[in-house]
Amino acid sequence: MIHDWKRRLVFVGGAIGVGLAAILFALACEWANDVFHRMLAISPYLPLLLTPLGLVLIVFLTRKYFPGSQGSGIPQTIASLDPKESSKIREHVLSLRVALGKVALTVFGLMFGTSVGREGPTVQIGAAIMHNMGKLARFPRHDLEKGLILAGGAAGVAAAFNTPLAGIVFAIEEMSRSFEEHNSSTILLTVIVAGITSLALLGNYSYFGHTNETLAFGTDWSVVLLCGVAGGLLGGAFSRFLIEVNKGLAGRMGNWMRAKPLALAAACGLVLALLGLASGGSTYGSGYSEAKSLLDGNAALPENYGLLKLAATAVSYISGIPGGIMAPSLSAGAGLGVNIAHIFTSVPAGAAIILGMVAYFAGVTQAPITAFVIVMEMTDNHEMILPLMAAAFIAKACSRLVCPTPLFLTMANNFLYQPTNTPKDGDNKAGDLK
């Protein structure tokens, strides 16, 4: 009985910790974004110098002091769930040191204008918090190694987006790719407590506000088909590109990228600055404010914003810095939806935008249920649930034509079977995953 209460206290304490960490992380990211835009107000050309230098410094710190914190953090978290994976790797990628590095370096990246989000990193941070909290109680090995990690990752998504249902679905569909009844109550309890923590401190809000857009059944549903196909193909192409780069390109270019990580970071920083100039500064940051302004109907963004945001997110990711792709992907999908709205003038623009968001997000992740649930919760729009579901599943089917395997799962497998994964004394290559 005492052990049962001790376990419950660990779950509740860990969930509160995940919620607090997500809130503090969000506030820090907003501050970093504000710092960058104040710098941008001085001169739009400053990023041509500061962004490459910033990325070089971030990649150096990542590889030297926080290996395992690269990228979104979702592949590392998925890899840590593998029963064949050594506990040494799990202790490394889910260490509190790596989690703190993830927070600091992601914030640092936003301060220099990278196109990254905080939601993916919050998954790794949440999993790390729950994993380390689990050591305080005598949990069965299965609970400690899988249930707690799943719960922490799910709570991270729920607290970061304020979307509790999406957190549960994300754990089932993306992190485990198969659901075990034994873990359901653990995940549900952790998500609820993390969500309550966020609700108590930030209030009841929707990530992208509230939309009243609806889509009448009939000819207007052709926009669902186009959004699904376009979002799926673009999202699949984006994922396939990241997978190929993550595996390692062949030839002289691939050799240069592997041998010169700091030079690669500088080159990526320069490309990000050029994309920022081409977009009028709209491709910097997570893309949250741009997506929200598109939904509100008061955005003044370039017509090719969606493609430019896609490119900026890909460049940020392959540079090797910590940072996620979830929020930037939603923003790129919103840009795609605006382009499609110009074709279907009888369809409300807001409806096309959220369809573009869910379709592109589903195309990138190949997790259609997570995609439509997360967008439905973030926009507080239940009237669009059927069109969103249809667009998400069409997008997944189209994405698989371009990218046969899911992005995060493939990267997790690459991480597991790379020969440099096993940490050795003084080895800073452990967990090197872009």
Task: Compose a concise summary of this entry.
The chain has 19 helices and no strands.
Features of the shown structure:
434 residues, single chain, 0% strand, mainly alpha, 19 helices, Clc chloride channel
Give the helix/strand layout:
Elements: H1 2-42, H2 47-65, H3 74-80, H4 87-93, H5 96-111, H6 119-133, H7 141-161, H8 164-176, H9 181-202, H10 222-247, H11 251-259, H12 261-278, H13 288-296, H14 305-318, H15 326-341, H16 349-365, H17 368-379, H18 385-402, H19 407-417
What does this structure look like?
By secondary structure, the protein is mostly helical. The protein has 2 domains: 2-205, Clc chloride channel; 219-414, Clc chloride channel, CATH 1.10.3080.10. 72% of the residues lie in helices and 0% in strands. It is built from 19 helices and no strands. The chain has helices at residues 2-42, 47-65, 74-80, 87-93, 96-111, 119-133, 141-161, 164-176, 181-202, 222-247, 251-259, 261-278, 288-296, 305-318, 326-341, 349-365, 368-379, 385-402, 407-417. Helix 1 (2-42) packs across helix 9. The chain is globular and about 60 Å long.
